[in-house]
Amino acid sequence: MFWYLLLLWGGISAVEVQRPRGVPLSKRPFYEENKPFTCLDGSRTIPFDRINDDYCDCQDGSDEPGTAACPNGNFHCTNAGFRPTFIPSSHVNDGICDCCDATDEYNSGAECQNTCRELWRKEKESMQKLAEIAKEGFLLKQQLIQEAKRGLEEKQTKLGEVQNSKKDLETNVEALRTAKEAAEQPEKEAKERHLKELLGGVDKVNTAAFETIWSKIREKYVSEVRTQTPSSNTDGPAPVETPQEEVREPVSDNDSEPYPDDDIPEEEDEDEDEDEDEDMDDGDYKVTGFDYILECLPIFTKSLFSSAAQKARNEFEEAERALREVDDQIRNLEKEISFDFGPSSEFAYLYSQCYELTTGEYVYRLCPFNRVSQKPKYGGSETNLGTWGKWAGPEGNVYSVMKYEQGTGCWQGPNRSTTVKLTCGKETVVTSTSEPSRCEYLMEFTSPAVCQEAPDLEVSDIHEEL
Amino acid sequence: MTCLRGRMVPVLVVWLALCLSGTWAVDRSNFKTCDQSSFCKRQRALKPGESPYRALLETMELTNTRLTLQLINDNNKVRLLLELYRLQGNMTRVKINELKPLKPRYEVPDVLVREPPTEPLSVLSQDENGVVLSLGVESQRVIVSAQPFRLDIVEGHNVLMSLNSRGLLAFEHLRMRKDTFSYKVTSTVASLWDNIKRVFSSQAEPEAENKEEADTAHQAETTKEEEEKVEEGMWEETFKSHSDSKPNGPSAVSLDFSLPGVEHVYGIPEHADTLRLKTTDNGDPYRLYNLDVFQYELYNPMALYGAVPVMLAHNTQRTTGIFWLNAAETWVDISSNTAGKTVFGKMLDYVQGSSETPQTDVRWISESGIIDVFIMLGPTPKDIFSQYASLTGTQSFPPLSSLGYHQCRWNYNDQEDVRSVDAGFDEHDIPYDFIWLDIEHTDGKRYFTWDPHKFASPKDMLQGLKDKKRNMVAIVDPHIKVDSNYKIHNEIRSRGFYVKNKDGGDYEGWCWPGNAGYPDFTQPDMRAWWASMFSYDQYEGSMDNLYTWNDMNEPSVFNGPEVTMHKDAVHGSWEHRDVHNLYGLYVHRATMEGLIQRSGGVERPFVLTRAFFAGSQRYGAVWTGDNAAEWDHLKISIPMCLSLGLVGISFCGADVGGFFKSPSPELLVRWYQTGAYQPFFRAHAHLDTPRREPWLFGPENTALIREVIRQRYTFLPYWYQLFYHAYRTGEPVMRALWVEYPQDPATFAVDDEFLIGRDLLVHPVTEEGARGVTAFLPGKEEVWFDIHTFQKHNGAQNLYIPVTMSSIPVFQRGGSIIPRKLRVRRSSACMEHDPYTLFVALNTRRTAEGELYIDDGHTFNFDNKEFIHRRLFFSNNVLSSVNVAPEAQFTTKSWIERVVILGASKPRKVTLITADGHKSQLDFDFDASVSVLTIRKPSMNAGEDWSMALQ
């Protein structure tokens, strides 16, 4: 093969002698000089001089490998010094240089330079760069995988611990509930007495309304007594470990909790507010009843909200809250443990991180597995470009594309969504964003986690040896 | 691109929200009905048969070329001047103006290509009832009846057309405003006088009348307004929140035309309606008033973006035409005795004394200007095309590349986007010639500029396209952002080139850039300046492969009445009212002139416009505006372009895929299959729709779209030759069937299929889920060949054709020869030197003929006889090519690679005889199953004489 390529390098005339124009070496045996040629699809046989005679005889275009005569033919660029390739016949002699060896424009007057060596040099450079990146990236990826494994183990251990502590808490809660109920007995009696005395009997009032009012009274008088509970953000599950600090630029987000539950507390808060509002608004009757009670409430009743009952209540609520938090923790851990962070969990490190890219107009923010957003650079509110949907790469490479869906709705259009394309890189960076279609965003994102084992640098199909 | 463009300045959002109301249909309340347009309402209220107009025969003057005659309105004594011309080419021109208007009335300039040459008129006979004039040819005469005034054009015993036969001539003369104090004094005195006079005249009418006529000149001044009532809307009119100050008062003109024997009328685009015009008795008249109609509705007479006031009337005997040269808001009423005989019988009896013959009556009503009407007498459809072309010119001959495929979208986001779409076409092996940029390419909707971030190096981008022999179109709209940092605005303002408002300041309105001025394109020096802005040194970043698109040139004014300019805005000494329908034509013209000038007059321009008027064909292409991705919109593209073709505008297309909304893959594919066989072939999409480049709908659909775009490219030689023909003759490229089969009534209302030239018949699939279509194959003598299967079908039949997604029912007429280039490449320019395949389809007499036209494809050198024009014909088993333009000189590298003869029998041998007498035997294949003979590689140059004998 080497001698043949040398000939090729020697000049086009040599090629002509060897095989018809536009025929790849692999097909050469089909084009035997001066023997009738059978179309490669077997449809007919024609004299050899009809090969490349600028008239299409074969339906599959195989008789005109070197001309533009057949609509479905292919021209083989040898591209000595670079990578051989096929171009559609329609690109032969169309005045546009397609083959780097200029062989496609032999009769069009187009002045094409042989750029194969130059291309090869450039490609080699960029391949080398890519290979280096891939190599380093792949090493980083191994670390990521290790760390993810460790992280996973830790989480599983933690989960076990937490699940154990949950049992204790549950026991504790039950004990405290009993204590609380005992301590509340005097209060309960007082309440019933008041109900009778002040309002003239249970059957005359809406007991449910009374309950509401009563609890409000209690809250009002007890609020000072009550101790402040610790704020949830110092008490949440431990922040996720952040391996590979040097390869990414996490956006400072110290007070953030592990998500995807990040948003949920807020929403719940809102819901609670709404519920309260609804209760308050249940009817005028209750409001006036409440005022009435406040006015008439004998002073001594206050003392009935005894510190003993209150203490028991507080302790019980405290224990309940602790149990809830443990439940949350378990949920979060279970979610994170079962989350699809790639075949080797190499994407786990992205969890709870955010990455930004600033363009002319906007700051784009990608928080992997959570959401994508866009904020005008010069003031204005943030727009949700989609929340985590799924891995959406093509079959065989599912983990190359992330899809974020159901962002803020577009005016007269769909909800915003973002496709994130991942490519191999040493660093974890958003490299570009665009909006190819209205409200459909595209983000390019590099990460070592997508790096594959460094390919062999000696690209086999390039005629480097020439 | 109407008002719904998402990224608007905040103020516009409010307006848009109002404009939208969330449904996908036009908000009719934004546009006037006849009742809401005071002149239309006034004029339409007139009853037929009560014409107050009388011809004063004694005022008749006849010079060699012109007859003049005064008409008097017996109600108010206002006199009109009638001018009648016999024009060369079997046309009659009738002009009616006030004899002595208070101030000049607008006469439309710049539409006629020249003052139409006249021919002598002569008086055949005359008496007190009228005059008979000879029109010279074929015993054609004009009969002028005196009382009531009426014109009849007759041939032999047949009335071809009558004017004012229903007595609906109305001419609102200019007058002083009555509700001013000084006027009231005089008018009170005058009406007193009138009452006295009336008492006497009723007793002695003939005398009084004679007396009146004798001293009308004196009396006119004092008496002529006496009968006029001041009606609402005469001096001021409001529509929604907009007020029209109407300083000139009422000024409408109107005239009726009767067309005996006619049941089919066509034309008066632009309307989203059937090819055959409908009667308007039960609704509004057809309206001609260039408007930016958001999400237009189909099958109604509402005005759209353009207006060509030309109507064609046709029956099996004759085609005639009416060209109503008036650029003001115009309404056209159509009624027919066959459409609802019981209703119209009475009126008809009045007109004709009989209700036996079918008859169509039309009536034109315009808001201002004069009556200037050209009556084209045919008699054939092709005569009409050449008559109309002699008045307003022919279709400009476009660069060959512009007949290829255009890829457009609002918007291609940036240079990288353009690059990747361009690469996508190569990757999927789909040819295209133009990629388009909508308004977002500019720096803040400042036309002639580029967004500095997204299009930072436009020349690099253009060069990238040029390297692939492709081109770009960038939008340049006529609304200019009011911004003192914008050069174009500053220049227009300092030169006083903006349209003025009624108070004399620069008119401003809202459009894409926010507050915008509107250059006064009616001024020649404004147009010259605008044209100069396209020179390469002025239009930064432009190159010779950048062409232009004029949108929004109705003009669209978001906050104006009916989304357009206030009628009392001022263009020099005229109101916008007078010139409205011309504005878009002038924008188009100035832009086209700019593109010609930038190349020193060498290169042919390409400019697309949305608004148009009679004569717009001279300046480039039009499209049907902002349609929607709906099957009905696909269907309507056919009659809309056919109607435009009938009135000279051949370079027509609809947005492939539909502008608003998102097409299903099936609709998109069907639209490509239809658009590929329509003259202007451009895909376009709204900003808010998902991307729809041809390869985004799966490999199967990509393959279907690729196939049909490639089919388009194989037919480019034929399209090009047809456009050359349209440029020479004015004949439409895309033709209604009746144009070629004028004697077959079965063709008269067909608008679900069409002809390209006369040799290709296309019946696109426009039904969702279609399993088959029924195509009408016209012509008793004809045979038609399916271009895909080569199957032969007889004419004069309804043929059911089963279809799959890949089917596009297209037929080549037996008797025709169509040159094609089967080597489809990246763009039309890449195919320049490629060889031809001649498709010879034999008719029942085993003959065929066709043409081959070749030039450089992009310059005006064809005007200097640099072209090849050959006639190809087949008879007696010999196919020959002869030069029909021996005086022309051009050489081509293209050769004939193949001849395919459809309907052939198998020859023993085929011999080629070249110009030098050399004979050679040619190889051939014969497919007996479909009788197709394929002659292999005759190889002669396409510009040479040759013949080929089948033995």
UniProtKB/TrEMBL annotation, chain A:
GO terms for biological process: liver development; N-glycan processing. It holds the Pfam family PRKCSH_1. Residues 225-235 have a biased composition (Polar residues). Residues 352-453 form the MRH domain. Residues 252-282 have a biased composition (Acidic residues). Residues 225-284 are annotated as: Disordered. Transmembrane segments: none annotated. InterPro entries: Gtb1-like, LDL_receptor-like_sf, Man6P_isomerase_rcpt-bd_dom_sf, MRH_dom, PRKCSH, PRKCSH_N. Keywords: Coiled coil, Disulfide bond, Endoplasmic reticulum, Signal. Residues 145-179, 309-336 form a coiled coil. This is Glucosidase 2 subunit beta. It comes from Nothobranchius furzeri (Turquoise killifish).
From TrEMBL, chain B:
Belongs to the glycosyl hydrolase 31 family. GO terms for biological process: carbohydrate metabolic process; N-glycan processing. Residues 730-818 form the Glycosyl hydrolase family 31 C-terminal domain. Residues 208-227 have a biased composition (Basic and acidic residues). GO terms for molecular function: carbohydrate binding; Glc2Man9GlcNAc2 oligosaccharide glucosidase activity; glucan 1,3-alpha-glucosidase activity. Residues 203-231 are annotated as: Disordered. Residues 83-333 form the Glycoside hydrolase family 31 N-terminal domain. This is Neutral alpha-glucosidase AB. Pathway: Glycan metabolism; N-glycan metabolism.
